[in-house]
Prior knowledge:
The protein is α+β, with helices and mostly antiparallel strands. It is built from 19 helices and 19 strands.
Amino acid sequence: MRWIVSALIATAACSGAPVVSPPASAPPPTTIEEFRSAVQAVLSDTGVPGAGIALVRESGVEWAGGVGLADRDRGTPVTADTHFRAGSISKTFIAMALVQLSEDDALDLDTPVTAVAPGVRIDNPWDASDPVRVIHLIQHTAGFDDMHFNEMYNVTDPPDIPLADMLQINRRSRQVRWRPGSRASYSNPGFGVAGHVLEFVSGEKYEDFIASRIFEPAGMTTSSFVLTAADEATLAKGYKDRSGPPVPYSQIYLRPAGNLHTSPADLGKFVHMLLNWGEMGDVLVVDPEYLSNMEHPRASLASDAGLRSGYGSGIASMLGGPFPLLGHNGGIDGFSSVFAYSTSRDIGYVVLLNSTHSPDAMRRISSLAVQYLKAGIEPPEKPQVSVPAATLRAYEGYYHDANPRNQVSAFMEWLLTGRTMVVEGDALYAEPVFGQRQRWLPVSDSLFRQENEVEATRVFTTDDAGTMVFTGGFAYAERTPRWAVELVRWPVLISFFVVLTPIAFLVVWLMHARRATPAGFWWLKGALLMCACSIAAPIGALDMLDATQMGVRNVWTGVIFFGSLMLPVATMLAVLFTIDAWRNEAGRWLRVYGLLVATSAVVLTLYLWSWGMLALRSWDA
């Protein structure tokens, strides 16, 4: 189940790499040498091989270089020119390219996608009144699902498969799940469509357009969206753990969403351009007004309600540290990355790591960069206002998450999320079903922030139906009666564990087989075991798979399909044989136990059926 866990974690992390304060005992670095030593200590502590870093000020890149190793086996050091795969930082460049077309009056970002790229098929029940617009693609508010398994890794097609052909691989990731422009949910397919729109409007390949309009004027002479065998010579090796071998350089289908590779020196120049409002020397890469619009969301209920933080157009707010920052992070096999710059436009930084096993390393190195660059500067005061208790009490109630990133794991998220908002003193407290209590401080009558945040990150507002929602960034929760959720949640969770128990009872049944009644009711026991195996087998198969294998037919994806197909069959047999056991006066404990497991199997079957999880073909889902 590693891929499901990763998806849930990524949902919380994708809005930007938070900057955290260091331990009080750690003195902040005051020189580049001290900074490099501190970074090396983090790498040694976390087991990350190497880091490519750029420290940027308004006047230019102060330092770009490397700490640690680009190749663990060969002992190759990281330098300023070592390339790293930058993952989702790619999205910033796609968004900026579309904004440049908007500057050129070649594209209106509020135009429906099907009007500018009529070949793109979008299944949108709200199309007549609320079509998916270009701005929705680059602000993650189209309502699309995230990547489906068979559109993740390109293992069969040419690496440069045309984007129009790539979009035909799985149209189901472009099924709109709620009204476009209402909720944000991170969607790589949305940026795949955005890349296609860029090509359709500009008449160029998206890689060529970005190279000529962004890379070249920004001085990013070696950066590229094209990954060839020749490029691998300049790339660091990527790793997924402390001591294992490097991971292969995988080709991906949704290249506009994550195929950028770049160096600390190159990406540092890009951050310098952002600090200077789109200017690079005498060249204006992007108009300051258009860049400012990129930095804030404007296509969601949260932005309509006055929240200015969140995911803009390829640029996200990062508000978890002492200073408000903007930027984007990224992750792809063996690599994690972030660029960030201060909203006061005095400093910025780049951190590129060649390992994905330690988010802590990214947080700590980012914090060191901010400490060094902001030395001697007092952080801004965190806003807070006094709000009448009656206003706060109007927000009390139970809020359930309603914007799953990955629809394939939404059935799990639905069971595990939700929180009750209560008023205590001058603040609201979120009491989650699972997890730690959170304090939310008012910034206005409807805007709130957590204690460590420097600006408001959530807002209370109402949707078109008048339902109260708590939203901001990639969070969207609707107020709903808690009893209606718990009426489903706990029976399903309890049923899950009950259905697995026949695996443990098998040993007992075998030990007492000779002492059982002549028939032993083995048909019932077999049916109960089938129910258990239909749940356990797919879970075991998921644990054996990595993400590159989920989108193709193989033994393990076959196990997932047949296991999820077998559950309703096994459930029906369990019900029939339980009835038979009662009619034929089986032992009381077996009758009761059979009834309990069969009933639990019915509950699980109905729940999974309601989410479309039976007979799951991951290679075509």
